[in-house]
Please model this.
Amino acid sequence: MVKDISTLMGYRKDIRVVDATLRDGGLVNDFYFTDDFVRALYQTNVKAGVDYMEFGYKASKEMFDVDKFGKWKFCNDDDIREIVGDNNTDLKISVMADVGRCDYKTDIIDKKDSPIDLIRVATYLNTIPTAVDMIEDASNKGYSTSCNIMAISNGQEEDIKVALDILGQTPVDIFYIVDSYGALYPEQIARIADLYLNFAAKFGKKVGIHAHNNQQLAFANTIEAVGDGVDWLDGTYLAMGRGAGNCAMELLLGFLRNPKYNVYPAIKFVEQYMSKLKDEGIVWGYDLQYLMTGLLNQHPRTAIQFTKDGRTDYSEFYKEVVAHD
Model:
């Protein structure tokens, strides 16, 4: 399929850029970001014209020890308000609520009492019924919602269709394509986007993409999705995120032709803050171990452990992961 050049040279007013640096990046440093970092990130997003900033997770304090994680694992409304005040800007605030890891009935309060605008519900295909309940709960409380179906590279197409049909009948606003393992190629993204967009058109929803960089394709897959008609795009500064990281925000802002986006504040933030995190020894980004799990369409947990252990015996690791495939 040849794309209309106007989809790449022009811009669509429906595009929304979501900064997931605190949330996906938080998986790398247990959410220990300084308030100075978070304020600077917020101000950068405002200046860069980013549409949504994801502050982290609404994780269960019963399940996760609050002393072992930074506050953005839990995203208390007061902590967000301390950074954004009344948020009198065009930037909207989002958090992620993970199925099975969130006390959503109590921890997500009514929208009128919260600085949060969007609840992003993360689910696997086998937990869709709970995701539906979470979406309905958040919607009843006044929030916009998305549903991020994770690990679809391991899903059967028929199962994905059933999930989208179920979700289409809920108040959810956005279906998210999530390449959790960084295993997908642009040609596959084109086919998946077509599938999601068909269901989105049927039910009046939008479609988003969240890509991982195991095969250095997070940016390529994201701009493939844009050309296919996907409107909601996730990025992180300097591609910070779990394992191999994500689509780099600075690449994405540079690519989008909409004059409301400005790449300069992103470049300045990377220079002043992200490079410093790297210098402090926080590790993320493309590396051979992540390539291997991506190639094999496996969860990156073994590669993450390989990284933590300081191993460099890549060929030995390859034999280990192939044996588990």
Q: What stands out?
A: The chain has a mean pLDDT of 96. The chain has two domains: 6-279, 288-324. Residues 20 and 231 are 16 Å apart (CA to CA). The two ends are 33 Å apart (CA to CA).
